[in-house]
Structure formats: C-alpha cells, structure tokens
C-alpha cells in the first residue's frame, strides 16, 4: 500500500496543503512539497497535530529553529514581539508558513531601513573630484611652494623650503634638526593650505629636538591645534564600551528562552517536540536529530559541538553521538576544525560557515564599541589630509630588490653625514622635490612578495603601490610573474624598475616587451605603466624611479587620511630587543600616534614609551603613512597585525586578551585535526594526503624491523602509498611527535609508550599515536585503514557521580546545581546525564560550567563540593544525581 501524500492528508482534513506542510516542518519532518509521500506514522501524527491545532489555525512555531542570523537580524524578530509565532518564521528565510507572511512584513521593515541609511551615509564619502584641472586627481589645491617656507611636516604637498636640503626644521624626517641650522621659525602656524582643515597643517617640530637643536624638546611639539579638543575621533563620541553587541551570537535565547513564567506549557511543547523528533526524525547512528534545510550557520573558529548544538537547538550529546557515528570523536566542549563541522553540518542539513578571522576580529572590536570601517565611512572630506604613498618592492630573486631599497634609502641622505648609521627598521621615508613640492614616499623595507602576501593574508592593506624590479639581463622570471599577480590581485598600481641596466647584456627593451604580455604596457608603448631604467649599483635612475612613483600615485590614488584621531595602522615587523623589550615598526594609516598612547597590536598591548625613526631620531608623534619604531608593547606582534590606540589602557589590554583567547581557540581547532588512521582513506579521497606516513617506535630493533617489513608488504592498490618516515628503538619522544606533526604521520608504538612531554604534545597537536604489542594487530589496523575500513571503537565509562544538594537559580546562567561529588571525578569536558529516582531524566548534556567557590575548575574529585551548570538544561532538583560519562577509545591489541 502506498504511503499517503501530504496533499491527500490535507484534502482529507479540508486544509490547504501548505498548512499541512508548515505543520510537518514544525514537527521536524522534512518533506519537499505537497506531492511528497509520508510514512503512515507521520501521517497519523500530522492529522492528530492538525486536528489538535484546529486545522485553520495558524501553525505555531513551537519547533522554530533558533535565530541563526547574525545579531543584525535580531531587531527584526523582536519588534513583532507580541506574537512569537509570527516573528519566528520571519527570521527564517523561505518559511513555507504562509499565514505568517503578513506579520513577517512588519519586522522586515527594520533592516530595510538600515541599508538605506547606510547608502546615504556613504554617498557623500566618495572622494570629491579635485577642483581645477590639475593632472593629479587627488591633489587638491596645493599650497604654492613658497620659497623659504618650511616644509609642512609630512604633508606630501607641502611647500619646499627652497634652500639647501628642502627639509626644514619641522620635518620629522629631517632627522637631523641640528644640521638644518636653526629651525626656521619652528612652529609656524601660518602657511594655511587653502581648503585645509587644519590651518597650519605643518606639524611643527615633530622630531624631538635632536642634539642641541634649538626648539628641540617638547616645545616644538605643540602642533597648532595640539590642544585639539580630545583625541576622540570625530564621530565617535559615544562611550567606548557602548557594547553594541550585548551578547555574542548564540546567547541563550533559543527555543527555551522565550521568557519565564510559562514553564509548564513550554515543557509540554518541548516534550511533544522531542517526542516527534525521537520518533520521526532521521536517525543517525541511533540518535535522532532534527535536520536543517540548508540554513547557513555561522560558527567561530574553534567553536565546539555545544556551540553548534545551541545554534541549531538540539542537544550537544546527540551531536556528539552523530559525529561519533560519522567516524569522529569529540567531546561537546572540544574545539572542532572546519572540516569536522562541515561533515557534521552536511549530515544534518546545515551549511556551516566558519567566520573569517577578519570578521571575527571586527566583531570583537565592535564589542568594545570600535567599528573601524564605520569610523572611516563617517569621516568627512574636511577631515582628510594628504599622506605619503606607501610602496613595496617586489620581484624575482636576485633581481636587486634589496640593493634598490638601499639605493633609495641612501639617495635620501646624500648630504647626510658619512657613515651615518641607519638602523634597518623595516620601513622608511624618503623625500623628493616633485613639481616644486617636497614630497615624502614611504618604503616598506621588507622586500619580496612573501611579506606583502603575509600582510595581505592578515587583511592588512598596507601598500598603495608596488615597484616591480626586473633585472634587465635576466628578464621576466617566475617570481616576477608571481609578484605582479599579487600586486594586480590587490589592485595596487605598479611601477616597473628595470634594474641592472649598467650590466653588459642588459636589455631593458626586452623587459618592456615581455611585460606587455602581462598587461603591463609601458607608456612609451602606448600603455599606462611607468617603466624606469635603474641601476641599484650605481644609483642611476633612482630619482626618476621615485618621481615615477609619485606620478603614478597622483594619477590613480586617493592618498588621504584623517590625522586628527587616535592612531590606527599596521605592524610591519617586530622583534624582541634585550634592553628595550618588544620593538615594533608600525605604519600609521590614520590618526596620530603619540607617546603615552594606550595601544594594542594583535595580541600585544601597552603604552607607547618611545618612538624613533629609522635613523634613530626620537619623535613624539607619528601621522598617516609614517613608519615609526615603537617601544612599550607587552609582547611582539606579528607582521601584518593591525594596531590601534584606545582611550584607556584597560581597553587595549582587554582587546589583546580576547584576541589571544580567539587565537587559542583557532589553534585548538587546528590541532585537533591531524591525520588519524581512521580518517586516512577519506583524507586520501579528498586529496588531502597522498601517502600514509608512519613513524615506528619499538622496544627492540628486531620488532621494529619486522613491523616495518610486514607493513611494507601490505598489498594495497596503486592509489595509496605507505611510507615509513622514521623508525627507532625506545620511547616515543617529543621529536617523534614533532616529526609527525610536520609530515602528518601516524605514530606506531610497539611495546613502547610516549614520555610525558611527547604525550602532551601529541594531545595538543592532535597526532594519532597507536600502541600495539602484537605485530599482526598493527598490520591489521593499518591495512584496514588503507582500505578505509578502520573505525575507532569507543566505550562509555562512568567517570563521576555527584548529588545535587542545592539549586541556585540565576537569570544569567540558568540553574546551577550545587553538588557534592560522591564518586569518581567530575570533569568539565565530560558528557553528563541527570538521574532522578534511578531514572535517566536527560542524557547527553554538557557540563558547561564547573566551579568551586568563585573559581572555574577543570575537575572536582570525590567528596568535594562544586557548582555545575548544565547549559540550557534547567530541570534539576534537590536529590537528583549528575553522572558524567566519558567516551574512551577501546585499546586494540
Ligand atoms: N650590476 C648590477 N648588479 C646589481 C644591481 N642591483 C643588484 N645587483 C646585484 O645583484 C645581486 C642581487 O641583488 P639583491 O639586491 O640581493 O637582490 P634581491 O632581489 O634582493 O635578492 P633576494 O633578496 O635574494 O630576493 C647582488 O649581487 C647585487 O649586487 C645593479 O643595478 N647592477
């Protein structure tokens, strides 16, 4: 007999098919459409449910999924408030629950309004076209070069001094205020730039005096407007801790969190739902879990099963089981890696999206009331001032990148003192008079596209422009192409330096010719890319190259930033100095960095204790595009880490600490997933590995050899390769584990065990270590693994029992059980079940908090008292027992 179809059941009851469909969905049944057939028990349930609901009534959203959207969508669901039934389907995308539609329309207005506002806000932010017909699109009216006027600081469009070195006393990069004779009129508040927001934009006297230079010391630092009302960036008036996201995504508001007072009806609904689920939901290895319909679930890196369970509103224990049957073993609170989540999500009908590190950091900062993108958007044209272009040098190995960077740096100190010691600080600025104006250009002195890519990989957009170095005697080489691909991918304009033109056999024309194939067409060939012949050896062409950089920058880039706010930028490089602690070269991207500022860079934080330029000159301030060496950070940030100044030390520290936690989590997730014998075949099929690498350690050399020999004899098909990358006699050591980590190997211990360090490391890194005392067992396992047949065997072990002596009710944390441990040990990562009068009340719960007095602890032993939080599970009473279970892998032998 055929199973009834949905529309038939609907017709029988005189309801529309969509109502029946909605009901089914609510029951957790996944059916495609009215023509889908359902099993008789489901049909019965459906009828019963429809009748019970009164067939024409709107379907309730009892089984509504938790809000999976980002918090942004939350307000949408809320305003509907009064009718949760209507609000819920609205939050879900294509809810077939048609009756909910009118109600859904209302909340939908809320988010719609936002983009509109945003669009409005951004519109005026587009850079206005410069007035006049200047060939340099971003060059707003320049201050006419007034001969003799001091160069206004770092402003690339500031006027030259006209005499001697163009750098005047107020030029921070003069670096030698003493040489430049008395600083011409130190803080010269004059020289207003037409249209400039800060009259007297020259930042007088930024470099701290230097030796004996008049006007040195602090005096010259009074920038006009230095007393600017607060450093608080305009537009960011609100308290730093506004805490927009009161609670992270996936708070406690799930299906259980509909507000108090309705415990009874909530429970009955829940029971009903569970009943449906248990009976009708697809079974995965004995557990029934409601399936999703392809919804996207955003998870943080390092999230655990509990986090996922909360988002899809199922029990973590069930997910542990499902995962277990998918061949993965994890506890509810353990961090999972992306691919494990994917497998789990796919099985359950969800699309898992791991939040990118950038988004994660953005959300983290938003938690502190910092939205850097918004900050930039909110900036007004009048806030922006010109900054120097930031240039990276890239090219094939040995084509002269380092040499060229040196030549450029030297060209800047032609009349500097002989033998002047310039520290290598990873970034420096040079000055050129360009069209009558003294301009600064910032060079990132970490040649190579690796550095460029590493920074880009961390989301740091540092470079405005790339110099592609091509040796004229060698032509285009693989890394040349790689470098230009990187630059083009980043949308960064390129200037080509055809280097080594002094060499015999140099053929610059050929370089031009070759590069046309890569869309880099020289101006002289009718293209728009500037090619400059240079010799890093003799210095020929270096000035022209800088000129070309400035022309290219002016032609296509909007190089402006707001200097009047707390500094934001990127760490270019950092090292630990014995005497000075962490020394970090930072590039300011916007705002002004000052001594004493509270600063956070990646996971490092602190206060700016001292700042120096590349030549060691101390400065008190650094503004956009200016690289400085900063002392005062607690630790060494990584190249490419962004940094920012916070109003308070505390905020900087908290941001750093949160980031560290995030990183730890991400690392845990990564560590979890190394190759194990069980998943070898899968990894092989997915192309993640090509060979099974083994490390064999044994108690005697004979055994090791015998094992090796037998293993190599295992007959496998051609697609699989088995390699023994290391073998030896003795305990498994940390270096064995290290090797396994690098080569993704499985360690076989024959009658030997790892030492403590090795064990810890293996656990941390997720290395699969197997122990055998019978050779055949080892061979069997490896063979089945190669054939993809090896499944781990686990058994449940009761690890602890605790009796509830008191129940603490907390609105924030839910009910907390005050217990005494009766036997064994209660551990934080264990699964738990609640037993009342000898009957299991709930299973598969996660111990989400374990505390002794005020402290979080990882385990509590027999006879000790502690507090246990079971997450959303609140149904606990005095006298209940909490039993913890651990899944222990059964040893094979
Ligand atoms: N004749 C001549 N030799 C040069 C010129 N520029 C660099 N060289 C030489 O080429 C070699 C490589 O120069 P580097 O500056 O180290 O090249 P690089 O691109 O930085 O090399 P890697 O750092 O290894 O990628 C050195 O021996 C330089 O002396 C030049 O303009 N003319």
UniProtKB/TrEMBL annotation:
Residues 207-220, 227-240, 248-260 have a biased composition (Gly residues). CDD domains: IF2_eIF5B (cd01887), IF2_mtIF2_II (cd03702), mtIF2_IVc (cd03692). Residues 261-272 have a biased composition (Basic residues). The gene is infB. One of its GO terms (molecular function) is GTPase activity. Residues 52-279 are annotated as: Disordered. It is found in: Cytoplasm. GTP binds at residues 395-402, 445-449, 499-502. Belongs to the TRAFAC class translation factor GTPase superfamily. Classic translation factor GTPase family. IF-2 subfamily. GO terms for cellular component: cytosol. Residues 386-560 form the Tr-type G domain. Pfam families: EF-G_D2 (PF22042), GTP_EFTU (PF00009), IF-2 (PF11987), IF2_N (PF04760). This is Translation initiation factor IF-2. Residues 59-131, 141-152 have a biased composition (Low complexity). It comes from Agrococcus jejuensis. One of the essential components for the initiation of protein synthesis. Protects formylmethionyl-tRNA from spontaneous hydrolysis and promotes its binding to the 30S ribosomal subunits. Also involved in the hydrolysis of GTP during the formation of the 70S ribosomal complex. SUPFAM superfamilies: Initiation factor IF2/eIF5b, domain 3 (SSF52156), P-loop containing nucleoside triphosphate hydrolases (SSF52540), Translation proteins (SSF50447). InterPro entries: EF-G-like_DII, IF2_II, IF2_N, P-loop_NTPase, Small_GTP-bd, T_Tr_GTP-bd_dom, TF_IF2_bacterial-like, TIF_IF2. Keywords: Cytoplasm, GTP-binding, Initiation factor, Nucleotide-binding, Protein biosynthesis.
């Amino acid at each position: 007999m055929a199973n009834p179809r949905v529309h038939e059941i609907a017709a029988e009851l005189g309801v529309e098919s969509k109502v029946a469909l909605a009901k089914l969905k609510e029951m957790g049944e996944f059916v495609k459409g009215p023509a889908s057939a359902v099993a008789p028990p489901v049909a019965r349930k459906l009828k019963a449910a429809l009748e019970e609901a009164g067939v024409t009534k709107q379907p309730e959203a009892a089984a509504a999924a938790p809000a999976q959207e980002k918090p942004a969508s939350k307000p949408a669901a809320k305003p509907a408030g009064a009718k949760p039934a209507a609000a819920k389907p609205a939050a879900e995308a294509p809810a077939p629950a048609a009756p909910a539609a009118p109600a859904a329309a209302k909340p939908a207005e809320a988010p719609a309004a936002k983009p509109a506002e945003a669009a409005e806000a951004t519109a005026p932010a587009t850079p206005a076209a410069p007035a006049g017909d200047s060939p340099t699109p971003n060059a707003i009216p320049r201050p006419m070069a007034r001969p003799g006027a001091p160069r206004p600081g770092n402003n690339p469009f500031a006027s030259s001094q006209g005499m001697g070195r163009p750098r005047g006393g107020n030029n921070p990069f003069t670096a030698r205020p003493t040489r430049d004779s008395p600083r011409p009129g130190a803080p010269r508040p004059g020289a207003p730039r037409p249209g400039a927001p800060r009259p007297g934009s020259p930042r007088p006297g930024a470099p701290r005096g230097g030796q004996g230079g008049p006007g040195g010391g602090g005096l010259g630092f009074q920038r006009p407007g230095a007393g600017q009302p607060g450093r608080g960036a305009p537009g960011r008036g609100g308290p730093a801790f506004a805490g927009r996201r009161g609670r992270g995504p996936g708070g406690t508001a799930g299906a259980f969190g509909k507000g108090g007072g309705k415990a009874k009806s909530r429970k009955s609904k829940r029971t009903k739902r569970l009943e449906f689920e248990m009976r009708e939901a697809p079974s995965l290895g004995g557990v029934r879990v409601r399936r999703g319909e392809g919804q996207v679930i955003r998870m943080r890196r390092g999230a655990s099963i509990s986090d996922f369970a909360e988002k899809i509103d199922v029990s973590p224990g069930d997910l542990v089981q499902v995962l277990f049957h998918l061949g993965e073993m994890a506890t509810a609170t353990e961090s999972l890696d992306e691919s494990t989540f994917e497998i789990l999500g796919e099985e359950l009908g969800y699309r898992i999206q791991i939040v990118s590190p950038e988004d994660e950091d953005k959300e983290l900062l938003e938690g502190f009331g910092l939205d850097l993108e918004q900050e930039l958007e909110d900036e007004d044209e009048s806030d922006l001032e010109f900054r120097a272009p930031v240039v990276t040098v890239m090219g094939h190995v040995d084509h002269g990148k380092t040499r060229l960077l040196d030549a450029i740096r030297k060209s800047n100190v032609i009349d500097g003192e002989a033998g002047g010691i310039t520290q290598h600080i990873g970034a420096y600025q040079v000055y050129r008079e360009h069209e009558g104006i003294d301009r600064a250009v910032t060079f990132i002195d970490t040649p190579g596209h690796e550095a460029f890519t590493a920074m880009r990989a961390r989301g740091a957009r540092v470079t405005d422009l790339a110099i592609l170095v091509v040796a004229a005697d060698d032509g285009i080489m693989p890394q040349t192409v790689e470098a230009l691909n990187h630059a083009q991918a980043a949308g960064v304009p390129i200037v080509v330096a055809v280097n080594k033109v002094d060499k015999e056999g140099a053929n610059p024309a050929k370089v031009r010719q070759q590069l046309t194939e890569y869309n880099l067409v020289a101006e002289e060939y009718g293209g728009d890319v500037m090619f400059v012949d240079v010799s890093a050896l003799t210095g020929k062409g270096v000035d022209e190259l800088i000129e070309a950089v400035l022309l290219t920058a002016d032609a296509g880039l909007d190089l402006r930033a707001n200097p009047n706010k707390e500094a934001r930028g990127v760490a270019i490089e950092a090292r630990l100095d014995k005497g000075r602690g962490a020394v970090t070269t930072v590039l300011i991207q916007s705002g002004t960095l000052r001594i004493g500022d509270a600063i956070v860079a990646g996971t490092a934080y602190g206060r700016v204790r001292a700042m120096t330029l590349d030549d060691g000159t101390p400065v008190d301030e650094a503004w956009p595009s200016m690289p400085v060496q900063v002392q005062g950070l607690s630790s060494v940030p990584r190249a490419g880490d962004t940094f920012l100044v916070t109003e308070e030390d505390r905020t900087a520290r908290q941001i750093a600490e949160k980031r560290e936690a995030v990183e730890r989590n991400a690392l845990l997730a990564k560590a979890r997933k190394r190759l194990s014998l069980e998943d070898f075949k899968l990894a092989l099929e997915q192309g993640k590995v090509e060979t099974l690498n083994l490390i064999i350690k044994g108690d005697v050399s004979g055994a090791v050899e015998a094992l090796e020999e037998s293993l190599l004899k295992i007959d496998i098909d051609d697609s699989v390769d088995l390699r023994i990358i290391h073998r030896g006699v003795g305990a498994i050591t940390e270096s064995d584990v290290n090797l396994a980590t690098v080569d993704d190997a499985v360690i076989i211990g024959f009658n030997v065990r790892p030492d403590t360090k090795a064990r810890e490391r293996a656990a941390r890194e997720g290395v699969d270590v197997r122990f055998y005392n019978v050779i055949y067992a080892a061979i069997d396992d490896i063979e089945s693994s190669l054939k993809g047949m090896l499944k781990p065997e686990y058994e449940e072990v009761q690890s602890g029992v605790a009796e509830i002596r008191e129940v603490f009710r907390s609105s924030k944390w839910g009910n907390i059980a005050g217990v005494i441990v009766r036997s064994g040990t209660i551990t934080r990562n264990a699964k738990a079940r609640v037993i009342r009068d000898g009957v299991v009340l709930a299973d598969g719960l996660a111990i989400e908090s374990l505390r002794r007095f005020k402290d979080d602890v990882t385990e509590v032993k027999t006879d000790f008292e502690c507090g246990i939080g079971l997450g959303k599970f609140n149904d606990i009473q005095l006298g209940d027992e909490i039993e913890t279970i651990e899944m222990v892998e059964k040893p094979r032998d």
